[in-house]
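fyi for ur records
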Amino acid sequence: PYGGGSDPGDDPPPLPGQDNPPQDLNGDGLYRDINGDDQFTIADVQVFFIHRDSDVVQDNAEGFNFDETDPPAVSIGDVQALFLDFTNGVDGINADRIRNDSLGNLGDPDSAADIDVRSLFGGE
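which gave:
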C-alpha cells in the first residue's frame, strides 16, 4: 500500500490506461484526481468507476475510501461518494462541475437527485 502523504514517492502509480498517478488535490489524504491531470472532473469519477477493482485502487483503499467506511474498503459506494463530492464540491478543490440544461445544475443537490447516473457513464 501507498502512504498517501505529500511525498510523491508515497503516491500510487497510474490507474490502468492512465498516464499520470492519482493526486490528492487538497491534502485530505483522498485521491480525487483519479486520472492525475491536476483537476477534479467528471472524467475522474468515470475512470474510478471503471477501475475501482484494480490492484492500484484496492491496494491503497485508504486513499480511495470516499465513503469513509471503517475499515477502509473500496466499493461502488466509493464511486457514489466521489460523484457526490464532484456534484456538491469539496473544500479546497475547484471542481469542473457539469452544467447542462438537460441535466440541470449538478451543484444543486435537489437537481442532482433527479439525474440518472447511468447516463453519465455511457449507459442507457
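Residues 88 and 109 are 7 Å apart (CA to CA). thats all i got for now
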